[in-house]
UniProtKB/TrEMBL annotation:
This is Gfo/Idh/MocA family protein. Keywords: Oxidoreductase. Residues 5-125 form the Gfo/Idh/MocA-like oxidoreductase N-terminal domain. Gene3D superfamilies: Dihydrodipicolinate Reductase, domain 2 (3.30.360.10), NAD(P)-binding Rossmann-like Domain (3.40.50.720). The keyword Aminoacyl-tRNA synthetase does not apply. InterPro entries: Gfo/Idh/MocA-like_OxRdtase_N, Gfo/Idh/MocA_oxidrdct_glycsds, GFO_IDH_MocA-like_dom, NAD(P)-bd_dom_sf. PANTHER family: BCDNA.GH03377 (PTHR43818).
């Protein structure tokens, strides 16, 4: 049996605590070797909880350890690329949270570091993993919906509650100073579209709205995206509202409709002649993080290309930056 991959985690915020650390702990293929966070007390408390030998606030201490094979980076996206580059040059493979950067120039520097170092990066487009999205892509590729296709995608997140949760309010406000929700949550949507359409983007028209004047960027963005293969997508992304509408994930074609229901954990095809439903029995988010980690470990062991890697990360960022540019030009 192969020895466990020794992994260090940098950034012990919410996504690390709620998703990455449980996935790492549950994997028999992994040993959590070190935890790093700017808040040493937080890293130390988690190190006790997960029985990790090293807790530090200095990421170089983690990277200088030759026994650590790879790192998981869960930091804000304006910090992530610099840590990713340092990790690659230190001889570590990287699984980093999306987006891989907040501008294309920096993302390309990550790509260059990957190519020069000989180590690889997997981008945390977690929700592309698993049978639901793969089934949807198969239906599209098998032409069960016909063409052209209409993609209707909506995501609403980050509840506005400055009095009840001031820490969250400050954190998301700082994030919005670096770009609207389309740069951040939009990274997943852009990856979904790139994954499903397999087509280059032809045109982007976007509008942004600030529902409160004090917000540093628009907190609601709506975009219409045309693809070179004739498909079209309508994308809504909203943050910082006290109540949200239900999100949507539908693909409509001349032969039927496919509905991805993340709450019901199903993907359903409805055509003139048939209704087909695939249901995920395992908890959706847990499943996605488990499969993501399994693919990361397999690629480390086999040397095969990490997918989604920097190629997919740059493609996603290019689309979200086109959305940002269109908003700014209105």
């Amino acid at each position: 049996m192969n020895n466990p991959i020794r992994i260090g985690l940098i950034g012990c915020g919410d996504i690390a605590v709620t998703r990455h650390l449980p996935a790492l702990q549950a994997s028999p293929q992994v040993s959590i070797a070190a935890l790093c966070d700017a808040d040493l007390d937080r890293a130390s408390q988690l190190a006790v909880q997960y029985e990790v030998a090293l807790a530090t606030s200095d990421y170089t201490q983690l990277l200088d350890d030759p026994s650590i094979d790879a790192v998981v980076i869960c930091t804000p996206p304006w910090v992530t690329p610099h840590l990713t580059i340092a990790s690659l040059h230190a001889g570590k493979h990287v699984l980093c949270e999306k987006p891989m950067a907040v501008d294309l120039e920096t993302a390309m520097k990550v790509r260059e570091a990957e190519q020069s170092s000989g180590y690889q990066v997997q981008i945390g487009f977690t929700y592309r993993h698993g049978p639901l999205l793969e089934t949807l892509r198969d239906w599209i590729r098998d032409d069960k919906l016909g063409s052209p296709l209409i993609y209707r995608l909506g995501i609403f997140d980050e509840v506005w509650d400055p009095q009840g949760n001031p820490e969250h309010y400050e954190r998301i406000s700082r994030t919005m100073e670096r770009g609207s929700p389309s740069i951040h949550d939009g990274a997943h949507m852009a990856d979904f579209l790139n994954f499903l359409t397999g087509s280059a983007v032809a045109d982007v028209q976007s509008f942004g709205l600030r529902t409160r004047s004090e917000f540093p960027s628009s907190n609601y963005d709506v975009s219409v995206i045309r693809f070179e293969n004739g498909d079209i997508a309508k994308v809504e992304i909203g943050w910082f509202m006290p109540r949200f509408p239900a999100g949507e994930f539908e693909v409509v074609g001349p032969r039927g409709i496919a509905i991805f229901d993340r709450t019901a954990q199903t993907v359903q095809l409805k055509s003139e002649t048939t209704t087909q439903t695939v249901k995920l029995e395992e908890e959706y988010f847990e499943s996605c993080f488990r499969i993501q980690l399994d693919k990361f470990i397999r690629s480390i062991r086999t040397g095969e290309r990490f997918v989604p890697g920097t190629k997919e990360g740059i493609a996603s960022l290019a689309l979200t930056k086109a959305i940002e540019k269109s908003i700014q030009e209105r």
